[in-house]
Amino acid sequence: MTSATLSIATAPDRPRRNHELADVHHLASRMMVYLLAFTAVSVVGFPLFWMVLCSFKPGGELYATPPSFLPREWTLQNYRDLFVQTNFPTYFANSLIVAGGATVLSLVIGGLGAYSLSRFKFFGIAAFSNAALICYMLPEVLIVLPLYIYVVKLGLADTLIALIIANTAFTLPLALWFMRSYFNAIPVSLEESAMIDGCTRLQAMYKVTVPLALPGIISVGVFAFNHAWNEFLFALVFTSSERNKTLPLGLATWIGQDNIYSWGMLLAGAVLVTIPVVLFYLLVQRKLVVGLSDGGAKGE
Amino acid sequence: MADARAAMDGDRTLAYATLAPSFFLLVLLAAVPTVTVFATAMQDVGMGDMSGPYVGFENFAWALESQAFYTALWNTFVWVFGSVAIEMIFGLGLALLLNKTFLFRGVARAVILAPYLVPTVVAVLVWRYMFHDIVGIINAGLITVGVIDKPLLWLNSQSLAMTSVILVGVWKFFPFVVIALLGILQSIPQEQYEAAKIDGASGFQQFWRITLPYVMPVFLLTALLRTIWSFHKFEIIYLMTGGGPLDATTTLPILVYLKAFSDFEFGRGAAVAILTFTILIVFLGLYFLLIKRAEAHQ
Amino acid sequence: MAQLEIRQVSKVFTDHTAVSNVSLTVNDGEFLVLLGPSGCGKSTLLRMIAGLELPTYGDIVIGGRLATRLQPKDRNIAMVFQNYALYPHLTVYENIAFPLRVRGANTKNVDEKVRWAAGLVGLDSLLKRKPRQMSGGERQRTALARSLVRDPDVFLLDEPLSNLDAKLRHSAREELRQFQDRVGVTSVYVTHDQVEAMGLGDRIVVMQGGTVRQIGTPEEIYQYPADTFVATFMGSPPMNLIQQDDITLGFRPENFLPESNYPSGSDVTRIAFRVYRVEYLGGDRLLYGHVCGGLPETPAIARIPSSVSYSPVVGSETPFAVATADLRRFETSSGRALPVDGIVVERRLAHG
Question: Where are the domains of chain B?
Fold first, then answer.
């Protein structure tokens, strides 16, 4: 056997290797793929690339015509100005409070509700699930009018609490739907087993079901955080004072005053607003992968 | 054997207690407002105590007779169908591209999905800087290449504003289409293509006879979902142009906002909001119909 | 350890009755198998014993204590689920320790017990693994260790071998039985596999359509089936049934041999058989054909050991015979067994 293999390997008329790239059609289609991918990435990615680049340009360069491509002089001045001259830190803190509060509320309230929808069977369950989905489809502009009236009447106008609650209402339907499907994916027998092993139903839920649904719960949390972090309309309508503005509202006010604030500071602010979102995305992406591989071992 | 859910049937109290907070929050913050917005639309509400004399359908009558409403309706349709059509075409194209294997595909995918993650206010800010008539890179680039010889007023001319806003909307939201379609593309069994190749189908025939029919249900659903969302999209247009110049980009949601919070005519704002929602219900109905059909299909 | 009593238990779901008026007693230390096709109510019965379902009627008594309305955690039972229900986020060690931890046992005690239970099933070296890093057999042993770590009164097993491949299933069955002999705990085992039931059970309860068809030792059930359902459900290939007016005759394929095979003068019943296909299985041959002659033409199977020298002729009518002692008679209308040789087959009816 061995000698036979050897003789083939050393044979003078050893067959020529067939390279895939030697095929003209194949080569052409590969080049096409790379060309298209490169074009798409450049066009789609350019605005964000430009944003980061320009946030490091000194004031003069930002207003140069024609604009310079790479900064001739890299500077952190825009970022420094942002913190010294503006309320950016206040906005940032407000956004953290609003997004954090809405996330916690969505997860706790939505988590309990989703558990109920997933594990129990009772009258009206299908109707409730569908109604929740419709709530998610309601236009914000329809809801914002009556909510504004409530908020004013309850004396909650211009408070962060009003924003937290309104944001929760909008993320809750999706939290319910997603977490229900995560809970559905966890076999009931695990909880039954825990109950036979000595847990009450609530203990079984937080000792077994919640840890297993954690990847899903985290991604719902990130979604809720993102939504509240980006939310603009409620903030615009509910908030009037400078000290209660969230980041999107704060930045938007500056855009309105085009020539008063410098583009540099605005772009620096935009970069900083984007960073938490990107961090969260990276976090979820890894968690999601873990969640998927856990799913493979489901029920075993 | 009984359904797995029936197993936990015993504890009704817990079932209701855990669902109650969600239920009340949704009723209070979605269902009740949807109803009370009708009450507001029937009143001549101004600032102050947020209620006013009952005027019946006067606010609706005003809306249906005013030029502003029809302009906004037309603008909404241009905005919705313009952006959704382009998003779907580009979304499908890029999903097909990302479905191929190539070096740095992960990087390409991350970059292409990035606009969807970026906060709207950031997207607006960057694009407004790029659209700027004097310092913007777009005008500078086009002049350098020689397409135009003097700067265009991208956001400040009545003829270009809507195009510019649609462009930004497409850039921000087409990744959603890519994500949705990439998911379904990756689930097409490879054997189908192998069988088609052996049967003599060309690349285009494979796309036309296998890929397209396979993704069509998801494609339609995604298009409808994007239509619904674009229909009541507010902040991207508001932040780009504020509905202007004049009323060139005033869509229905913008009109609602301007009526209520700029002219302080809550009743009229509410009436426009309800009319907007009525149109939306048609799309929503279609969406749920499609979902039901897709579920029945499985 | 305890005796388990099921008293006139029924379970009615909104759309169907899963268990209908079942009574039985599992003796202390006994290994009882609930056997039946899927949907016969055996799993529902087990879940009622576990406390995962409330019986619609009737009571469950564990160790002399009325347990009908007790929470699962208060019954001191253990259960091995079909999918083992191992907690995927916990290591083997923590899985086994779980029942002790939720009962608030102290750490030293937990460690001792976990190691004892793991040793019992030979898992000592795998304690740090997560469930998904283990083979099917190892998972099963983990589930066993977890269920036995706290000396349960009753041990419930819901088709624990059905997730294993055929080869592993055999050795796992062997291990399981040895293990039960060693621990001696009262056990209720649910399965749809009659081979498993025969191999494992001290007694077997055959269920169908929510009712008990027969209770008995494996031998009793195989030799003296209480009705035609049990007769055809047990044994592979099943008992041959030949309907002759009011009486249905039944005989096992292995008792159906060429007449020439019996010593002359023995008490046999002759039955003519026309073979149309022979299946060679190594140790045996299966002969498929029709009984004929004086009897109504009915498909039947004969199982002839390869050691018996006989060459079947396909298509021709051959004299076959069954020892009269091996012949069973059933009432055609009800399917019930008729008394044989003075042995009255115990048959539990729904209202028995």
Answer: 67-297
* Residues B251, B169: Cα–Cα separation, whole Å: 14
Tell me which residue in B1, B6, B10 faces C43 most closely, judged by beta carbons.
B1
What is the Cα–Cα distance from A281 to C253, expressed in whole angstroms? 67
How many angstroms separate the CA of residue A195 from the nearest CA in chain C? 6
Note whether C102 contacts A: Cβ–Cβ < 8 A.
yes
Query: Does the distance separating the beta carbons of B7 and C52 come in below 8 Å?
Result: yes
Number of domains in chain A: 2
Quick check: C20 pLDDT over 80? yes
- Both structure tokens of B53: 């004399």
Range of the domain at A64: 21-79
Report yes or no on A1 lying in a domain: no
Helix A140-153 / helix A160-184 crossing angle, nearest 10 deg: 130
| Structure-token pair, residue B263 | 């002219």
- C280 by DSSP, 3-state: which? strand
Q: Do A195 and C52 count as a contact with CB atoms less than 8 A apart?
A: yes
Q: How far is CA C287 from CA C292, C296, C313, in A?
A: 15, 18, 10
**Distance from the A17 Cα atom to the nearest Cα atom in chain B, whole angstroms:** 22
Cross-chain Cβ contact B273/A141 below 8 Å: yes
- pLDDT (average), residues A218-226: 86
Q: What is the pLDDT along chain B (298 residues), one digit of tens a residue?
A: 333 344 444 577 888 888 888 888 888 888 888 888 888 888 777 665 566 777 777 788 887 888 889 999 999 999 999 999 999 999 999 999 988 888 888 888 888 888 888 888 899 989 988 888 777 788 788 888 877 877 777 888 888 889 999 999 999 999 889 988 888 888 888 778 877 777 777 778 888 888 888 888 889 888 988 988 898 888 899 988 887 788 888 888 999 898 888 888 888 888 888 888 888 888 888 888 887 887 776 5
H or E, element range at A225 = helix A210-230
Q: For position A156, which CATH number holds?
A: 1.10.3720.10
Task: Enumerate the residues of chain A whose CB falls inside 8 A of the CB of residue B129.
Answer: 50-51, 54, 263, 266-267
Token duo for residue A137: 């489809």
- Return the residue in A82, A120, A147 with the most chain B beta carbons within 10 A, the one to mutate for interface testing: A120
Partners of residue C103 in chain A, C-beta under 8 Å? 198
**Is pLDDT above 80 for A164?**
yes
Instruction: For chain A, say whether C77 makes contact (Cβ under 8 Å).
Output: yes
pLDDT at residue C350, rounded to an integer? 35
A177 part of a folded domain: yes
Residues A57 and A200 in one domain: no
Sequence-ordered list of residues with C-beta below 8 angstroms from that of C259, at least 6 positions apart, any chain: C268, C270, C319, C320, C321
Asked if B19's CB is within 8 angstroms of A113's CB, the reply is yes
Chains touching B (at least 3 CB pairs under 8 A) are A, C
A205 & A152 share domain = yes
Selection from C202, B256, C255 nearest residue A139 by Cα: B256
Contacts B2 to C, Cβ<8 Å: 13, 18, 44, 53
Domains and CATH numbers, chain C: 4-223 (3.40.50.300), 238-331 (2.40.50.140)
Q: How far is C298 from chain B (nearest CA, A)?
A: 35
CA of A225 to nearest chain C CA: how many angstroms apart? Answer: 26
Secondary structure letter of residue B27 according to DSSP: I
- Count CB-CB contacts under 10 A for residue B57: 12
What are C126-182's pLDDT values in tens digits?
A: 888 888 888 888 888 888 888 888 788 898 999 888 877 777 788 888 888 888 888
C209: closest chain B residue by CA: B1
- Integer Cα distance of B87 and B203 in angstroms: 24
- Are the beta carbons of C77 and A196 separated by less than 8 Å? yes
Q: Give the integer Cα–Cα distance in Å for B270 and C34.
A: 66
Same domain, A96 and A56: no
Question: Under CATH, domain B67-297 is a member of which superfamily?
Answer: MetI-like (1.10.3720.10)
